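An instance as discussed:

___
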Amino acid sequence: EEGTMVAAYHDSNSGPQSVASNMPQSPQLPNPPGLANLEEIADTIAAVQHMQQRDSLAMFISQNECSYLKSLLSLFPSAESRGDYGSLATLAACIKTILLLNDPSIIELIVSDELIF
């Protein structure tokens, strides 16, 4: 299963052993993002706690010139035109959490001229 690693360690009492490590799994975000699966996206992003998960999430979001983040940002006008304030708040929370990952390519996209309006 993805995200599971096998680690070998030496226990002084019993010799070398191979065990599945307790490494947290990489977060699996629904793709493509949409208003219909926004709650699942928010729950997945909010559940990220371990550094490995944060790094995996940042790597996923920043791949393909941040296409996932661009897709999330493109949901704002749709939610706004519908007056869907719940989705707007959820989107804002998702974007805030993504920004707090402090990934340079994500920050660069957010402050780029194409997104500032």
Residues 51-73 form the longest helix (23 residues). The longest strand covers residues 6-11.
